[in-house]
Write a structure and sequence with these properties.
The chain has 6 helices and 15 strands. Helix 2 packs across helix 5.
Length: 328
């Protein structure tokens, strides 16, 4: 699926500020599930943009504005081609995550982090799901995914970035970041490496992930999680919408939690207080029709037969007219 994305962020200050230095993580990555076709980042006031990949592999666009300014607008535009995720072909057992080499390779995704530091409530719920799922590791991760989606209700404005996952669990409501952090914490306390993913979702409703009838939607950034499975790779799941990550999901990047992939982070010099406005527009670009070769050949053969039959009828009609003229 081809998706064109426009991320826009604007700060307005009540008095001019200066020396604004910023990091933007809004341009999608390229991996086995998606390909970045093109991208550009522009700012107002105009600034020179430098691009690099951070420690986690996420693209970062950095820029600074030195002169006094009363507002800052950042626009990131990107075109992405997504593809379906291949079906799982392995079924590792739970004990495989405790093997030394695998554990060492994923150690950074096993520890507690500010947004995924679990307590007894989260751990008890995670172990309950593991017991119900049995020895199949994929089943355990899917059980965590389903349980987080079932326990939580989507309620914007009821939580804040930085809320402890134990409190998120107790409240039972939040937004996609809360779902993702809770799922990450539950996986990690079971010894399953898990990482937080920032991205976009082409949907008309963040609460359900419903597809759109039209080709343009206006949304906010989205979040989900990925769990590492020995012999498989990373399994990407969206607990907010009770689904596996698919062609309507676009990944920006991943990290240990939200702090590693915060869309825009910056500092400025001055006393002005700012207001923030963020919006994302995603356009689904029409795909060329899939050609059914067998059907096309059948239609071509039928057309050829029709033309042949018409020619025969014309010849028969001409011959009949000539015969009538000879008889006269």
């Amino acid at each position: 699926m081809r998706l064109d994305i426009r991320y826009r962020c604007r700060f307005d200050y009540d008095e001019p500020v200066r020396e604004s230095q910023n990091e933007l993580r809004a341009v999608p990555t390229s991996d086995q599930r998606q390909q970045l076709i093109s991208a550009r980042v522009v700012t107002s006031p105009a600034a020179r943009v430098f691009t690099y990949s951070d420690y986690w592999g996420t693209r970062v666009d950095t820029f600074g504005v030195r002169e006094p300014h009363g507002g800052l607008e950042v626009v990131a535009e990107a075109s992405v081609e997504t593809r379906r995720t291949p079906l799982l072909t392995a079924a590792p057992r739970v004990e495989a995550v405790h093997q030394g080499a695998f554990r060492n390779d994923h150690l950074e995704y096993l520890g507690r982090t500010p947004h995924a530091s679990w307590g007894p409530g989260v751990e008890a719920e995670a172990r309950r799901q593991a017991e119900l799922a049995g020895p199949d590791l994929v089943g355990v991760v899917l059980a965590v995914h389903r349980r987080v989606g079932a326990m939580m209700s989507y309620a914007p404005g009821t939580t804040y970035v930085g809320m402890d996952v134990e409190e998120v669990l107790a409240r039972g409501r939040g937004v996609c970041q809360d779902y993702a952090h809770l799922a990450v914490a539950m996986c990690r306390c079971l010894g399953v490496p898990a990482r937080y993913v920032s991205g976009y979702l082409f949907t008309t409703n963040d609460a359900t992930g419903a597809d759109a009838e039209g080709d343009v939607v206006r949304v906010q950034t989205h979040a989900w999680f990925e769990a590492a499975l020995p012999g498989v790779g990373w399994l990407a799941l969206d607990p907010t919408n009770h689904t596996e990550v698919g062609v309507r999901h676009v990944k920006i990047g991943h990290g240990r939690d939200y702090d590693d992939v915060q869309p825009l982070r910056g500092v400025f010099s001055g006393r002005g207080a700012g207001t923030l406005e963020v919006g994302v527009e995603i356009r689904r670009v029409g795909q060329p029709p899939v050609i059914d070769i067998a059907a096309a050949r059948t239609r071509a053969a039928a057309d050829a037969q029709s033309r042949l039959d018409a020619a025969r009828l014309r010849r028969a009609h001409v011959a009949s007219q000539q015969q009538q003229q000879q008889q006269q």
